[in-house]
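So, can you check?
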Amino acid sequence: MSQDSTPARGRRPLGPSGARLLTTMAQARALDLAGRTGLLRLLARADGPVPDPAAALSLDPETTALVLQVLIDADVVSRGPDGFRARPWLVEAESELVGGVDGTVQALGAGPEFLQQGALSAAFRQRSYSPETVLGLASMFGAAAAGLAAALPKVDGAILDLGAGSATWSLQMAAQAPGARVVAVDRAPVLEAARLAAGPLGLSDRLQAVAADLTCDPWPAGPFPRVVLANVLHLFRPPAAAGLVERAAAALAAGGQLVVVDAIGSVGDPTRDAYALQLRMRQPHGTVHPVDELCAWMRAAGLRDPQVLPLSTQTGGVLPLGAIVATAPESP
């Protein structure tokens, strides 16, 4: 008998535990297959029932029927006399997720090398910095950004947005403060999304786009009344993230504010833990930093009174998102 063989002797009869694992694995595999073949997208975008999904996508009818049945059991799909439909929640997910349901499945499709070597999803790397993805994230976070802007004091002067992406967070702050403008720093291809996002808000003339790599290029000279690090620190491991906080704090004017928007939550929170896994799938050093650690970095950088502002109610309660705001000391 080879080392990989498992003797049948001593095995217990299949019970609820084994059945639970088999069912969970089948549902996960069915979702993966449906996402990779366009089946999820077909059903999520259809105006009505789809009589024969296999024929519509040139799939094998018998195996497609098996996958559809598992998806029905998992409450992903329903079947009626006229054909198959996506459940309402799947239709909503298609409109909410940046890559749609099938794009999300494909982008998060990690192989064994992810666990063995930490290798990332090639599909996610290709999508991560496209203007389409960045603008999609801007739409996703728009309500939360507007709510945060309303909760903060109005800024008179330039807001430095580091790793700005679409600059959603800082543009919303500027939209609510006539005296504010945005200095957005990011990679050149990404900044096109910031320019596109500024137009509908009437802020094109109040946006300065600066192409730079945060880790090695100089930043625009301050001091600034506000510096924003939104969904940036989770891209770096602790030493590098703490260094960014220190540099951001040094760019503040006396009494200025550093605003960090990032994932919050504790290990054991299913939403936080799922986000942490997805984050690592798309970023080589992706990490959800504990809130206490983020606040400690702010204090170590000389900032005062870090305050945590949860934003979950403005993101549907499904993303572990929050803002931490700390203030630079006033001039003596």
Remarks:
- DSSP finds 14 helices and nine strands in the chain.
